[in-house]
């Protein structure tokens, strides 16, 4: 190759202009020829480079707007490339999103649920909305509205009304058994219909009115709070400030005796009972185990002590109390307290079930605790105290009963059989406790161990996590055992139905096909509905695609994940989608991607013809499609389907010669799709799927005949185009071929499938379906043709026999032959002086012949020389019918019957013309002179006449055939001479055409001040042959 022009730099930009503020823009400079380039990027009007390197990344801003170009430089010659074409970068501000409140309207209160909407005035089709709070993303979803719950942070929003808690008289102090009345007042609003009461952090479900009465049996400090609820906003108040209620122990009675024990018979003994706190006490005296008082008043005097006065004296009997109560669940703690006026030096005895049994425990203090009760700990309990040796006991306390039952365990029940959910799908968790009714319990929920605000029996969470629950019994605030965890996953995306890919999208009537539908990322609980689109109706819209949906009748109630058409009929042609649903109420997935399906007759009347015969082409490569129709092509149109619906004309930006032919000079990925031919009456061809890409698999567009060889080639867009590749069939690796070609010697049904190729560095091709056509169908049609031909031939032969018989009976032939054949052959073909006309003559037995005169013509010497070897037994003559001669004719006329038979001609190999370029350069410059010469191998140029074509049209059609094999009109060259040149020859002697030459392409590449013409070859597809020239 002779390089006569500087290499050209090409600048590309991704994404295409205009771009939006903040987008990343990549400018890339490429020079195909040579290497070791240093790339410079420029921005107008500066002459200084803004970047070095073949890639320049920009974060789009208004300052980046302008024109960019690039150039390459290197150390060796050429030291610089031509500059690239300029690319204008336009930067547009991003559309502004506005957040608006849908409901409720201001004022807002902590705990409110607020619906926000994201509005974007410019453009449509926004498919995802990202939500942020304080610049932190909180959600990403397909809906433009979001529901948020305002946090309980005072000061950020309008404050909730405040509840005030007070204690109604009597005021304290409070002792075990006293009743305390509390009142909850909320100054703002008057329609509070429900009040919440809390002791510490525990909700008290038994109290719901404005006043609450509590009975305390245990000593301790109790804190209470309250809040209110109303029907309209604000629906709740703030919690009141806490009020503390202190329950103190009963005052202690102190007993003294004078004189100290022992006393002697006859002495006076004085017992005195003193309670230091408060006043107004009534005192009673008891002796031993008797429950009847022996005296009243704070002083008891015994005069003249005798043996009968010996014993223990108490001012009261023990009182047994329980904390927290009588009804216990396993695992609870309980404390029994034996209250007595005196405790110093006493030992306390604890009894269960019977007083005569041994004590279950004895303590030095007046309390007995069971840390974790069991069912067996239930029963009746007593206590008493004793001291001394021998021991003097107090009376037994009154009995106290403890009831212990098994603690109920909560169970989280998921109403569905699946744990993975999608955006918008209802999740229902229920907390079940097998004790009483659900209304007997207040419920608490936890996610990942953290308490949630929900208190209901059933909740619908919207977040991933492990959920547990437990209950608090309303009548006694007892808690159940916490449940085991149930984990759920909630996707931020809506469920998407996916149609399984078909091995082939076109069927013949009678075939069977099964469509499969699944939900991406989920397999449980789905029912599927199948829809067929009304094919490509522009007036009906399904979502954003221009076609409508019709529910397939046998999937109305829901079907499994497959749908079978068997046998397929023409009415099944259309585009199919599916949709899944599950749960109650039903949750629906998005519709699947559309799946076109064609059903054609056994012999489609048309087919799609691709000029390359491959179903995959390179991006930016030209693509031309047309409808090949048997018979009348009127009313046939090329149609297109890419998932955006079908159209009845060429895709946008395509050039349409006719409705049945479409072409584009530079195809892009958006031109990939399914193409087919369709008539006005609805007849259809088999469709052809076309893909574009940088790596392609050359595979046949139409089925391969069984037994034929098949070669699949993996090609790369740039040079070298032949690359090593891994070949896959139906997703399985077949083999690695270093040549990038895989050959199947004889195609069979087992070779049908989806093929693709892959190069680790260059990428992989799209998939292509390879099918085979059985030889039987061809042979059957051939047999039919042969059978028809035999029948027709027999009929024609029979007719000819009858015709010949009739001719034989009605006509006679007389042929005059000059006796001196050699002499006649030497005569000039133009001379008639030696011809002897027949004037008469008779031959016996020749009455049934037709008379004709034969003139022998002299052959052209050169023609005779060339053809003598193969046609030495050929008689060249002119037959002229003459009148029937008289019976007495000239004596030198010889009569004979002549049988004329057609001699088969030997098959000739048609010579192919070739175009020779003088000078034989691969690059030309403006003002260069070039000569095209048409050459037919092995033949003298003078034996032929020639015709020249440019861009598949005749040059100088008025002159038609030319004696000269040279075309000299090119030179000096300019841009108008660009095109494809080819020639055709016609032999003078027999008007036989040569094959049309390959085209020589002259491409003009005008860069700045230099025009470069690149010369290369291309096969000619179709050129209509001119009329043959008549020769005498």
From TrEMBL:
Biased composition (Low complexity): 766-776
Pfam family, one: Ig_2
Gene Ontology biological process: cell surface receptor signaling pathway; immune response
Lineage: superkingdom: Eukaryota
A GO molecular-function annotation: transmembrane signaling receptor activity
Record keywords: Disulfide bond, Membrane, Signal, Transmembrane, Transmembrane helix
Region (Disordered): 454-483, 756-776, 820-842
Transmembrane parts of this sequence: 784-808
GO CC, alphabetical: external side of plasma membrane
Compositional bias (Polar residues): 460-469, 820-836
Entry keyword annotation includes Transmembrane: yes
Annotated ranges, domain Ig-like: 7-88, 95-158, 161-244, 251-313, 318-405, 408-487, 493-592, 604-689, 693-771, 904-983
Compositionally biased tracts (Basic and acidic residues): 756-765
Xref: InterPro entries: Ig-like_dom, Ig_Fc_receptor, Ig_sub, Ig_sub2
Name recorded for this polypeptide: Basement membrane-specific heparan sulfate proteoglycan core protein-like
Species in which this protein is naturally found: Clupea harengus (Atlantic herring)
Gene that encodes it: LOC122133719
């Amino acid at each position: 190759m002779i390089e006569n022009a500087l290499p050209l730099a090409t600048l590309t930009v991704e994404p295409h202009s205009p771009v939006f503020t903040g987008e990343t823009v990549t400018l890339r400079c490429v020079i195909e020829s040579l290497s070791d380039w240093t790339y410079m990027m420029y921005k107008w009007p500066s002459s200084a480079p803004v970047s070095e390197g073949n890639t320049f990344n920009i974060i789009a801003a208004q300052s980046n707007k302008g024109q960019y170009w690039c150039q390459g430089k290197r150390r060796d010659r050429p030291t610089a490339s031509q500059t690239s074409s300029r690319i204008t970068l336009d930067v547009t501000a991003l559309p502004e999103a506005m957040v608006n409140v849908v409901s409720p309207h201001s004022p807002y209160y902590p705990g409110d649920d607020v619906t926000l909407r994201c509005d974007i005035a410019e453009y449509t089709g926004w498919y995802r909305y990202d939500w942020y709070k304080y610049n932190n993303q909180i959600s990403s979803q397909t809906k433009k509205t979001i529901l948020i719950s305002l946090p309980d942070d005072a000061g950020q929003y309008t404050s909730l009304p405040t509840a005030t808690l007070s204690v109604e008289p009597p005021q304290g102090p409070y002792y075990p058994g006293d009743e305390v009345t509390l009142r909850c007042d909320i100054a703002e609003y008057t329609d509070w219909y429900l009040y919440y009461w809390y002791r510490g952090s525990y909700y008290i479900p038994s109290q719901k009115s404005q006043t609450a009465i509590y009975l305390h049996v245990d000593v301790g400090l109790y804190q209470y709070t309250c809040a209110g609820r109303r029907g309209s906003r604000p629906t709740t108040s703030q919690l009141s400030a806490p009020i503390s209620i202190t329950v103190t122990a009963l005052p202690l009675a102190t007993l003294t005796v004078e004189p100290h024990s022992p006393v002697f018979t006859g002495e006076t003994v004085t017992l005195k009972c003193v309670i230091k706190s408060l006043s107004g006490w009534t005192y009673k005296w008891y002796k031993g185990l008797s429950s009847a008082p022996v005296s009243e008043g704070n002083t008891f005097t015994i005069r003249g002590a005798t043996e009968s006065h010996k014993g223990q004296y108490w001012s009261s009997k023990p009182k047994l109390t329980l904390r927290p109560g009588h009804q216990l669940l396993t695992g609870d703690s309980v404390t029994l307290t034996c209250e007595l006026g005196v405790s110093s030096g006493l030992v306390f005895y604890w009894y269960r079930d019977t007083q005569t049994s041994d004590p279950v425990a004895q303590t030095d203090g007046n309390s007995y605790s069971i840390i974790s009760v069991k069912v067996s700990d239930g029963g009746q309990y007593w206590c008493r105290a004793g001291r001394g040796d021998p021991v003097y006991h107090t009376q037994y306390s009154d009995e106290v009963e403890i009831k212990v039952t098994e603690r109920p365990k909560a169970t989280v029940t998921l109403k569905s059989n699946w744990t993975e959910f999608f955006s918008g799908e209802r999740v229902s968790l229920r907390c079940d406790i097998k004790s009483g009714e659900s209304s007997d319990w207040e419920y608490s929920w936890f996610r990942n161990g953290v308490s949630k605000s929900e208190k209901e029996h059933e909740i619908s969470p919207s977040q991933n996590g492990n959920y547990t629950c437990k209950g608090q019994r309303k009548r006694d605030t007892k808690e159940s055992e916490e449940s085991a965890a149930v984990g759920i996953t909630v996707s931020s995306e809506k469920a998407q139905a996916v149609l399984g890919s078909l091995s082939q999208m076109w069927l013949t009537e009678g075939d069977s096909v099964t469509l499969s539908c699944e939900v991406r990322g989920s397999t449980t609980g789905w029912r599927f509905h199948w829809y067929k689109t009304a094919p490509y109706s522009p007036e009906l819209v399904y979502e954003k695609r221009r076609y409508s949906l019709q529910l397939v009748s046998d999937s109305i109630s829901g079907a499994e994940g497959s749908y079978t058409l068997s046998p397929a009929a023409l009415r099944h042609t259309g585009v199919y989608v599916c949709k899944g649903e599950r749960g109650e109420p039903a949750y629906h997935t998005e519709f699947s991607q559309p799946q076109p399906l064609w059903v054609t007759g056994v012999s489609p009347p048309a087919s799609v013809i691709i000029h390359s015969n491959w179903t995959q082409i390179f991006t930016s490569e030209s693509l031309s499609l047309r409808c090949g129709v048997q018979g009348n092509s009127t009313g046939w149109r090329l149609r297109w389907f890419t998932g955006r619906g079908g159209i009845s004309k060429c895709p946008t930006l395509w050039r349409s010669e006719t409705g049945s032919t479409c072409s584009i000079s530079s195809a892009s990925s958006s031109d990939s799709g399914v193409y087919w031919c369709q008539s006005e009456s609805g007849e259809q061809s088999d469709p052809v799927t076309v893909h574009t890409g940088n790596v392609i698999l050359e595979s046949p567009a139409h089925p391969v005949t069984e037994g034929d060889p098949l070669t699949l080639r993996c090609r790369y867009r740039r040079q070298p185009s032949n690359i090593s590749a891994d070949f896959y069939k139906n997703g399985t690796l077949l083999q690695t071929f270093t040549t990038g070609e895989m050959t199947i010697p004889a195609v069979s049904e087992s070779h049908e499938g989806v093929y693709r190729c892959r190069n680790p560095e260059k990428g992989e091709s799209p998939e292509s379906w390879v099918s085979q056509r059985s030889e039987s169908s061809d042979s059957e049609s051939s047999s039919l043709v042969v059978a028809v031909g035999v029948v027709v031939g027999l009929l024609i032969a029979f007719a000819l026999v009858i015709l010949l018989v009739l001719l034989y009976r009605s006509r006679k032939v007389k042929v005059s032959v000059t006796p001196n054949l050699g002499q006649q052959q030497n005569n000039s073909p133009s001379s008639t002086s030696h011809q002897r006309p027949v004037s008469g003559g008779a031959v016996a037995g020749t009455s049934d012949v037709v008379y004709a005169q034969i003139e022998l013509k002299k052959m052209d010497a050169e023609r005779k020389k060339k053809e003598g070897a193969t046609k030495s037994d050929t008689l060249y003559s002119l037959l002229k019918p003459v009148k029937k001669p008289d019976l007495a004719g000239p004596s030198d006329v010889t009569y004979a019957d002549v049988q004329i038979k057609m001699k088969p001609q030997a098959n000739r190999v048609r010579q192919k013309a070739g175009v020779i370029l003088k000078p034989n350069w691969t690059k030309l410059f403006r003002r260069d002179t070039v000569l095209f010469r048409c050459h037919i191998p092995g033949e003298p140029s003078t034996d032929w006449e020639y015709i020249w074509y440019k861009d598949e049209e005749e040059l100088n059609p008025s002159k038609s055939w030319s004696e000269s094999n040279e075309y000299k009109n090119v030179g000096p060259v300019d841009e108008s001479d660009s095109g494809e040149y080819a020639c055709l020859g016609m032999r003078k002697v027999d008007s036989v055409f040569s094959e049309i030459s390959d085209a020589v392409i002259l491409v003009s590449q005008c860069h700045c001040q230099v025009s470069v013409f690149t010369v290369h070859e291309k096969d000619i597809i179709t050129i209509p042959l001119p009329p043959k020239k008549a020769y005498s």
